[in-house]
């Protein structure tokens, strides 16, 4: 299964709690356990110059009771739960906890106790997403109470770009959702090449660009149909192909129009390197979409090495390609 240990950082705010239902759903689908974590500022890191030790201990007891209540609710879903309270700076402690406990997925809201703001993310979420190196789900809170239990993903949009990374994401989502009543939408957006210049492009240049786009469209159409065919095993899979200049904009706009419940994508697209936390397309979708976005970090190094030698990373096959061309891909 894609995930074994899911971290759910909570700051005791109602906004942060909007991630709970998503963590439960993913844990049940993958058989993972959930780690509830709260970072309490130590007296040395407190905003106040002087913190009453008695008040600090009382607050810690309240936090443990709060987490225990959530843990009991989650445990009722037959999910193993671990709760922890640590001291220090929130983002630093969350990242450190991930490293110490082999966390492979973080489920976090874009904003927490600080409230919803004009910025894309709260300071803690921004630091965790950029520094953890883990796959993560970003939930954009709406500020309204959410019901207990898991949430229901009936329609999931997966961003495809023809890369092994996006195929890997499709495999992971299909594995997670196997046996559930869900529709997966495989969306690939063919980019219209930009031709920035001072003077308008000529008819010949326009025709060349049209041929280029049409060539990519035909290849992508066959590619998506093949991916969809191989993923269908009790799951409804619908391929969608669009042509646009702004790829990210069409991803989150299509997700909203199709009323999907979740967007899933690789952190890195075919043209972004693993040196970046996320590629431009992924980052833009995360910032602009109101929907939960599940971001898979780059392939494990062992699989990347296998891929470079022509091995397959999942059950998706390309029978029309020769071994040589597969290795080149």
Low-confidence stretches: 317-329
Mean pLDDT: 86
How is the largest sheet built, in terms of strand order?
3-2-1-4-5-10-9-6-7-8
Mind telling me the CATH class of the largest domain?
Answer: Alpha Beta
What do you see in this structure?
There is one protein chain. By secondary structure, the protein is of the alpha/beta class. It has 2 domains: 5-139, HUPs (Rossmann fold), CATH 3.40.50.620; 155-328, Rossmann fold (3-Layer(aba) Sandwich), CATH 3.40.50.620. It has helices spanning 14-17, 20-30, 53-75, 90-100, 123-131, 164-177, 203-231, 247-257, 280-288, 301-308, 323-328; strands at 5-9, 33-40, 81-87, 105-109, 135-139, 155-160, 183-191, 236-244, 262-266, 293-296. A 10-stranded mixed β-sheet has the order 3-2-1-4-5-10-9-6-7-8, with helices on both faces. The longest helix has 29 residues, at 203-231. The model is unreliable at 317-329 (pLDDT under 50).
């Amino acid at each position: 299964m894609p995930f074994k240990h899911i971290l759910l950082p909570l700051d005791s705010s109602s906004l942060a709690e909007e991630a709970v239902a998503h963590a439960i759903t993913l844990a049940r689908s993958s058989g993972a356990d959930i780690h509830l974590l709260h970072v309490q500022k130590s007296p040395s890191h407190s905003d106040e110059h002087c913190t009453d030790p008695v008040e600090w201990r009382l607050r810690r007891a309240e936090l443990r009771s709060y987490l225990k209540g959530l843990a009991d609710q989650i445990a009722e879903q037959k999910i193993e739960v671990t709760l922890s309270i640590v001291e220090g700076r929130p983002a630093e402690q969350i990242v450190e906890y991930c490293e110490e406990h082999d966390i492979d997925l973080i489920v976090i809201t874009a904003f927490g106790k600080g409230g919803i703001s004009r910025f894309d993310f709260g300071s803690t979420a921004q630091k965790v997403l950029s520094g953890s190196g883990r796959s993560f789900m970003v939930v954009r809170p709406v500020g309204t109470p959410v019901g207990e239990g898991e949430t229901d993903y009936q329609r999931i949009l997966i961003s495809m770009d023809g890369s092994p990374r996006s195929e890997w994401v499709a495999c992971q989502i299909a594995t997670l959702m196997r046996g559930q009543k869900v529709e997966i939408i495989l969306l690939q957006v063919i980019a219209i090449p930009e031709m920035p210049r001072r003077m308008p492009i000529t008819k010949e240049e326009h025709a060349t660009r049209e041929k280029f786009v049409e060539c990519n469209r035909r290849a992508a159409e066959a590619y998506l149909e093949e991916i969809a065919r191989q993923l269908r095993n009790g799951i409804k899979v619908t391929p969608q192909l669009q042509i646009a200049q702004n790829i990210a904009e069409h991803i989150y706009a299509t997700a909203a129009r199709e009323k999907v419940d979740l967007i899933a994508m690789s952190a890195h697209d075919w043209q972004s390197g693993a040196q970046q936390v996320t590629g431009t397309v992924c980052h833009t979708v995360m910032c602009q979409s109101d929907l939960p976005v599940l971001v898979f970090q780059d392939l494990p190094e062992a699989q990347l090495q296998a891929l470079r030698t022509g091995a397959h990373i999942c059950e998706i096959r390309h029978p029309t390609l020769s071994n040589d061309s597969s290795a080149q891909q």
